[in-house]
Specification:
The protein contains 13 helices and nine strands. It is of the alpha/beta class. A nine-stranded parallel sheet has the order 5-4-3-2-1-9-8-7-6. Strand 8, helix 11 and strand 9 form a beta-alpha-beta unit. Helix 5 packs parallel to helix 7 and helix 7 packs parallel to helix 8. The relative contact order is 0.17.
Length: 317
């Protein structure tokens, strides 16, 4: 299947011209829909290997100290890329261990209204994937904190899979999360990512079967991203017992860290999740503060203070 024209504002049009929407999020996570990256006759085995990068080193260091990783998400370009760079540095100062940068996209499948609005602000500010990579390159002159991009496949496909992987690593990106690309349909990205040294981090859902957990745990690089709820980002975390049970099931299949995201909104949530997982991912709660204070001069102070409260709550007793 050849490449079709794509834009930042279009969802992927499959063989029947059906656009991928939020109603298909769970299917994407569990590999139950046909994705544009799927290749006929493709292999499910990983190609090559990736040497330990900043992401691996950070989890290893935290494990030795008996600590858990705080992974903080912000939307790149919200409200501007200059603000994004300042936020990354403040997040690190506040205790974040890994930075996740969202790539603005107009048709997300898993994001709630808070992150959708942030993506709209990012698009209005003119942010593109190439510009984000330049910002990462600039940040690498100041910080070596692990940086992971969360990008929908359309953006990567339009950029070119091989070129994206090469330029991302050259800029200083350590990993990529593609929420609408399950591992069994990631052939065109998998090879270039392995060759470049870029981790592809895959997601598991509460609805994932035992076989699916085993497969995704084996294929994911860097860490396994466990989505704690069946809804969208910004929903409330309520079933910590279920999270604990599913993280334990994932750990039966891998020694890679397991990080939990979706639904972690408060310091109390972060503390609870840190007791059962290797990493805690906080997105909407931070992005909400960016939206509130992006124009009032209190952005760095408000976001930094909140992240400090998360990290403090996660400290081992």
């Amino acid at each position: 299947m050849g490449k079709e024209p794509v834009s930042a504002g279009s969802g992927w049009a499959g063989k029947k011209g059906v656009r991928l929407t939020s109603s298909l999020a769970a299917a994407a996570l569990d590999g139950r829909f046909e994705h544009p990256a799927k290749m006929s006759g493709g292999t499910s085995e990983r190609i090559g290997s990736i040497d330990m990068n900043r992401l691996d080193q950070t989890f290893s260091r935290l494990r030795e100290k008996g600590e858990k990783a705080l992974i903080t998400y912000i939307m790149a370009g919200d409200p501007s890329l200059q603000d994004t760079e300042e936020l990354v540095l403040e997040l690190e100062r506040a205790g974040a261990d890994v930075i996740e940068l969202g790539v603005p996209f107009s048709d997300p499948i898993a994001d709630g209204p808070v992150i959708q609005k942030a993506a709209e602000r990012g698009l209005r500010s003119g942010t593109s994937l190439r510009m984000i990579l330049e910002s990462v390159r600039h940040l690498r002159g100041t910080t070596q904190i692990p940086i992971v991009l969360m990008a929908y496949y359309n953006n990567i496909h339009a950029f070119g899979e091989a070129e994206f992987c090469r330029k991302a690593v050259e800029a200083g990106v350590d990993g990529v999360i593609v929420p609408d690309m399950p591992p069994d349909e990631g052939g065109p990205l998998r090879g270039p990512a392995d060759e470049a040294g870029l981790h592809i981090i895959f997601l598991l859902a509460p609805t994932s079967t035992s076989a699916r957990r085993a497969y995704v745990a084996k294929e994911s690089g860097g860490f396994v991203y466990y989505v704690s709820i069946t809804g969208i980002t910004g929903a409330k975390l309520s079933d910590i017992a279920g999270v604990r049970a599913n993280v334990a099931k994932i750990r039966k299949h891998t020694k890679r860290p397991v990080a939990v995201g979706f639904g972690v909104a408060t310091a109390e949530d972060a503390a609870r999740v840190s007791k059962v997982a290797d990493g805690v991912i906080v997105g909407s709660a931070i992005v909400h503060r960016v939206g509130e204070h992006g124009q009032d001069g209190r952005l760095i102070q408000e976001v930094g203070g909140f992240v400090r409260s998360l990290k403090a709550a996660m400290q081992p007793a």
